[in-house]
Amino acid sequence: MGRWGYLYAQLFAGLSYLVAGVILFELLRVKKMQKRKAQHQGMTRVR
Amino acid sequence: MIDNISLPWSLRIIGLIALVGNGVSTALIRDRNHLVKPPQLGFATHLLRRYDCMLLLSWAFVNLLGYMTVLYSLSSYAVQVAGLTQGQAGILTAMLNLGTGLGRPCIGLASDKMGRIEVAAVLTVTNGIVIFAIWIPATSYGVLILFSLISGAMIGVYWMTVTPLCAEVAGLKEVPSFLSLQWLTAVLPTTFAEVCARMLDRSPH
Predict the structure, then answer these.
(1) Structural domain tally of chain B?
(2) ipTM of the assembly?
(3) Are residues B102 and B25 both part of a single domain?
(4) How many CB pairs under 8 A join A and B?
């Protein structure tokens, strides 16, 4: 097996982690939006 | 251990250690279901309709593809590409586990201090970067040891953070139902990730 015999497996692993990270950053954005919305609704109710 | 006491006894000792460890852990487990009163559904379809829950399940699926590939390819890569001996490849796996032992408590502490989703997201991306920056160019024993230690500390980020992330995303009451979905999601990538990775390398390019 040559020097790059595992290249595709390595790319597969690396890209999997990068894509998974992007998904989690999207989740972070969604949760922050939900939090902001809840705070806004709370403030409206207080007024 | 295999050289000194033979393979059958090495396997028996591993089995005994696992039995004692799991036995003690099982005896120490306590649940708080009488206080939380979770619905404990085996297949909570209402969670599958929520965008945030689907994102967490997708993260689990894709993350485990990378995890299994690193875990099972590293030692064979060391032997077949870097030209190391089986003993050195075994030490690499041991270093990966050492990194895991050191890294997981640190991930837990960091998650509590800096936010669970934030830490999990940063570590997941860092895993990807470490693979591109260290593993792909690595051909020597020293660099592979470094990769094993760094990667070992972070690749298990899923196992370390999945339960608190479930609680954060779906709420404490839904944790048992959501974890049931998580384990179901984990089946396919943990079974087929390494097969997919090896098939990619064997396909004619």
Answers:
(1) 2
(2) 0.87
(3) no
(4) 118
